């Protein structure tokens, strides 16, 4: 077995001071990897030997395997939609080597036994590390969480190492995991006391219920109109719920992470919380960065997710939050459903969720290259595929080092995931990216079991061409 020498690669966002460069810079280096998969050297003009395989990566970007801190891999219980094996393959094809899976499976991950079963399944998956959020919907689950976090047995300690935190649903979404409102403050206090990261799905159930009733009673449009999904879950719902969650974080001292933030109001609330020095972080999803309510026309139920698509005003506010540092992470909320489920019956009754773990990186790389997905697609192709996402945000900005920060450094820190940056003596878990390769996204050439993407036919620039580790 030979060592591997990556020659002349562009190392993104160097995190070690030894090269005398800042965290937001890129530098051309060689990386020597031992036969055991450990980085031996990083430097200029590293000498190769006969026992070394030299790989020319000139013009290519080198990232650590990226992190997606919000996925739904559907196993156990919904294997017709996805499995850990199929979705891990999709993740790796998109340069993602560590994911945090949500608890709304069947059975839900609200017991030690359910967590142990998930861990057992994940240990069979090669190349992609899967960690799990623990769900709390009623008081008994909180007791179990305390036992998991404070238990002294080897088994509980082992399982805790696979747990990335607590997921709290403040309204129903797929899996009906809405928390009993009477224990919310106790959950926050427990997470503060035990230093457990707490992730909240923030939508207000009363505002959503009222909006839904108004839509149904006014009957101002056909209930087959998929755009009403956004009307039924309005921006005010997310804002009110985020405000409530932040108040709980302020009161208890818990570390709060807002999942899939989608509104201008939400960004402003998190920005204010950060100025207040509260321990509040947030993530945004690619579908809220690249799609708007205008895209319902072409996507139909394939554009249905919770929280729903928003107007361009909200989308643009998310990009502004990325630029000024309010947004801490980009995470996909990868949530596959079958094509048959999305197409059956009334669109508003279709399940909510879209796949995204494999397409996150190329979408972001396209913006980093100074482009917008789809803008260079041939008009005939756009007409044929009825592509969505044609409304460009001219102010969207992201750099390669921003991608590292949002999709590796920050989630790694927030959830204490233990992923290693690219440095000497660390495991060589590397993504090699061709930043200039143009290609077309399509369900048939992606790896998720569901076989579709809301970005069907999109032309993107930048592709993961190899992963190591």
Descriptive notes:
There is one protein chain. This protein has helices spanning 84-93, 112-122, 139-150, 154-161, 184-194, 205-218, 228-232, 235-252, 264-275, 286-290, 296-299, 312-323, 339-343, 360-368, 379-385, 400-414, and strands at 3-12, 26-33, 39-43, 52-56, 61-64, 66-71, 96-101, 129-135, 163-169, 198-201, 256-258, 280-284, 329-330, 430-440, 459-468. With 469 residues, it is α/β, with parallel strands linked by helices. It has 2 domains: 3-59, Urease, subunit C, domain 1 (Roll), CATH 2.30.40.10; 66-420 and 440-458, TIM Barrel (Alpha-Beta Barrel). The chain has an 8-stranded parallel β-sheet with strand order 6-7-8-9-10-11-12-13. Helix 5 links the parallel strand 9 and strand 10 (198-201). Helix 3 crosses helix 4, helix 8 (235-252) runs parallel beside helix 9 and helix 9 runs parallel beside helix 12. The radius of gyration is 22 Å and the shape is globular. Mean pLDDT is 92; it is low at 14-24.
How big is the Rg?
A: 22 Å
Using the coordinates above, name the CATH class of the largest domain: Alpha Beta
Shape estimate: globular
Report the total helices.
16
How far apart are the termini?
15 Å
Helix content: 25-40%
Beta-strand content? 15-25%
CATH architecture title of the largest domain: Alpha-Beta Barrel
Q: CATH superfamily membership of the largest domain, which one? A: Metal-dependent hydrolases
What do we call the CATH topology of the largest domain? TIM Barrel
Name the assembly state: single chain
Strand order within the widest beta sheet: 6-7-8-9-10-11-12-13
Q: Can you summarize the main beta sheet?
A: 8 strands, parallel
| Structural class estimated from helices and strands | alpha/beta
How many β strands by DSSP?
15
Mean pLDDT: 92
- Which ranges are low-confidence, i.e. pLDDT below 50, for 5 or more consecutive residues? 14-24
Domain unit count:
2
């Amino acid at each position: 077995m030979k060592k591997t020498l990556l020659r002349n690669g562009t190392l993104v966002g160097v995190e070690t001071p030894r090269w005398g460069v800042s965290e937001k810079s890129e530098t051309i280096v060689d990386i020597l990897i031992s036969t055991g998969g450990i980085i031996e050297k990083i430097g200029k003009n590293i000498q190769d030997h006969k026992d070394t395989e030299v790989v020319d990566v000139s013009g290519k970007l080198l990232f650590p395997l990226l992190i997606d801190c919000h996925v739904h891999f559907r196993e156990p219980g919904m294997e017709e939609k996805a499995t850990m094996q199929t979705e891990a393959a999709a993740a790796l094809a998109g340069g993602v080597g560590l994911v945090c899976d949500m608890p709304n499976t069947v059975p839900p991950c609200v017991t030690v036994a359910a967590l142990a079963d998930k861990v057992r399944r994940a240990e069979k998956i090669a190349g992609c590390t899967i960690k799990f959020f623990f769900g709390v919907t009623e008081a008994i689950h909180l007791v179990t969480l305390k036992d998991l976090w404070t238990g002294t047995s080897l088994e509980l300690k082992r399982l805790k190492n696979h747990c990335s935190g607590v997921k709290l649903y403040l309204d129903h979404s797929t899996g009906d995991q809405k928390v009993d409102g009477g224990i919310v403050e106790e959950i926050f206090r427990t997470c503060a006391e035990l230093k457990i990261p707490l992730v909240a799905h923030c939508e207000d159930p009363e505002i959503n219920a009222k909006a839904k009733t108004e839509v149904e009673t006014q009957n101002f449009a056909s209930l087959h109109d998929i755009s009403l999904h956004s009307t039924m879950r309005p921006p005010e719902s997310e804002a009110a719920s985020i405000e409530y969650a932040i108040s709980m974080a302020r009161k208890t001292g818990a570390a709060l992470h807002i999942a899939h933030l989608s509104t201008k109001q939400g960004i402003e609330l998190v920005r204010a919380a950060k100025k207040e020095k509260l321990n509040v972080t947030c993530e945004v999803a690619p579908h809220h960065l690249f799609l708007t309510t205008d895209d319902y026309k072409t996507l139909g139920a394939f554009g249905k997710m919770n929280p729903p698509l928003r107007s361009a005003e909200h989308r643009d506010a998310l990009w502004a939050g990325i630029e000024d540092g309010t947004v801490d992470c980009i995470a996909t909320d990868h949530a596959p459903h079958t094509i048959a489920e999305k197409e059956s019956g009334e669109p508003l009754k279709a399940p909510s969720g879209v796949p995204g773990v494999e397409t996150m990186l190329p979408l972001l790389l396209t913006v980093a290259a100074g482009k917008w997905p789809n803008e260079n697609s041939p008009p005939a192709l756009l007409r044929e595929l009825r592509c969505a996402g044609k409304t460009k945000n001219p102010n969207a900005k992201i750099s390669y080092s921003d991608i590292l920060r949002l999709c590796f450094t920050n989630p790694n820190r927030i959830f204490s995931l233990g992923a290693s940056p690219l440095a000497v003596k660390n495991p060589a878990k590397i993504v090699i990216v061709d930043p200039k390769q143009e290609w077309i996204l399509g369900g048939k050439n992606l790896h998720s079991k569901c076989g579709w993407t809301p970005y069907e036919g999109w032309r993107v620039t930048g592709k993961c061409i190899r992963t190591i580790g």
